[in-house]
Amino acid sequence: MEFHQKHLLDIEHLSTADIQTILDTTESMAEISTREVKKVPTLRGKTIINLFFEASTRTRSSFELAAKRLSADLINFSQSSSSVIKGETLRDTVLNLEAMNPDALIIRHASSGAAYYLTTFCRSHVINAGDGSHEHPTQALLDAFTIRQEKKNFKGLRVVIAGDILHSRVAKSNIFCLQKLGAQVVLCGPPTLLPAEFKSLGPEIFYDFDTALEGADVVMMLRIQLERMQKNFFPSLREYRNLYCLTPQRFKLAKKNAIIMHPGPMNRGVEISAEVADSAKSVILKQVENGVSVRMAVLYLLLGGKDHEAAD
Ligand code: CP
Q: Which of 54, 59, 65, 292 to mutate to test the pocket of ligand 1 (most atoms within 8 A of CB)?
């Protein structure tokens, strides 16, 4: 199994073979999490720092669990209890943490390109846990792993991604990942949150949700990212809900065996009804479970894989 990346910054620049390697490695990692003792010594002696400059429930805790299941030491850094609030720059903060000799830095930041920026002055492996509205590579990988579990292969699959596409790093990583794997990606949202330029990345674009849902194998809902909006992109949440909320009635337009996904956090009653989110067709908590295994695979391939020294 070959993997020659030093960092995981995005999906756009990964090859299809790299993505397949991560998904195949995830299968072995998933088995570890089913054991009574969920721990292997693979990354013993490695030190990882979780650098989260934005809030997170799933990504931060699953990277921490992933590191611990591989026996690495992980410490959590949070902006609110650090010297960032005293004015320390990102570069100085990271240089000081790197002086403590970690092996990997996992970063979530509100600025697109923050993870790449770290690679320009750090020697550690850098993993992007979400940078602004750019990419969220491990989310797309766990989504792909979940789809593969449910649908077996990607060829001919129609995956509808609906909601606030403009601000979504999850949408961008998924567009790259799913198309590289052979799926047909369909984007849907109001025109203000789905600029026509997205067509140049390959997906079909729909502004009418009912039309987009016809024949869907996978429906992936995204929340409205109010925290990244400096102006009004739609008249009111009520109008948005009327046009773009995934309700049980709308979901009937998708294929009979279609599945429902959401990266979280969900806003129940806005982009997805509670009934749909909790239905038997929902794999939302399966996505969260798979997040640990995918992140174990990523840590293993970057820090512990046989060929990682050659990537330096
Ligand atoms: N999907 C996702 O990134 O969730 P968190 O913001 O909770 O990490």
A: 59
Helix residue ranges, H only, the chain: 16-32, 58-69, 90-98, 114-119, 137-151, 169-180, 209-213, 237-244, 248-251, 274-277, 284-299
Does the pTM surpass 0.85? The reply is yes
Residue 114 within a domain: yes
Mean pLDDT of 44-49: 98
Helix axes 284-299, 137-151, angle to 10 degrees: 120
* Domain extent for 160: 137-283
List beta partners, residue 165.
Answer: none
Q: Which amino acid is at 112?
A: S
Domain total of the chain: 2
- Residue carrying structure tokens 């004015």: 87
pLDDT band per the 50, 70, 90 thresholds, residue 78: confident
Residue 311, pLDDT > 60, answer no
Mean of the per-residue pLDDT values of the chain: 94
Could you tell me where the DSSP H helices lie in 120-245?
Answer: 137-151, 169-180, 209-213, 237-244
Q: Are residues 260 and 128 in the same domain?
A: no
Q: Is residue 1 part of a domain?
A: no
CATH number of the domain residue 300 falls in: 3.40.50.1370
Q: By the 8 A CB rule, do 101 and 47 touch? A: yes
Atom of ligand 1 nearest to the CA of 130: 3
Q: Is 196 a domain residue?
A: yes
